[in-house]
Amino acid sequence: MEIIDSPRAMTAWSDRTRAAGRTICLVPTMGFLHDGHLALMRRAREMAGKVVVSLFVNPMQFGPAEDLARYPRAFERDAELVGAEGVAVLFAPTAEEMYPAGFQTRVVVSGLTDTLCGLSRPGHFDGVTTVVAKLFHLVKPHLAVFGQKDFQQLAIIKKMVIDLNWDVGIIAHPIVRERDGLAMSSRNSYLEPAERRKALCLYNSLQLGRKMVAGGERDGHRVREEVQQYIVSCGDVDIDYVAVVDAETLADCRTINDRSLLALAVKIGRTRLIDNTLLAG
Amino acid sequence: MEIIDSPRAMTAWSDRTRAAGRTICLVPTMGFLHDGHLALMRRAREMAGKVVVSLFVNPMQFGPAEDLARYPRAFERDAELVGAEGVAVLFAPTAEEMYPAGFQTRVVVSGLTDTLCGLSRPGHFDGVTTVVAKLFHLVKPHLAVFGQKDFQQLAIIKKMVIDLNWDVGIIAHPIVRERDGLAMSSRNSYLEPAERRKALCLYNSLQLGRKMVAGGERDGHRVREEVQQYIVSCGDVDIDYVAVVDAETLADCRTINDRSLLALAVKIGRTRLIDNTLLAG
Question: Does the beta-carbon distance from A106 to B110 stay under 8 Å?
Answer without folding.
Answer: yes
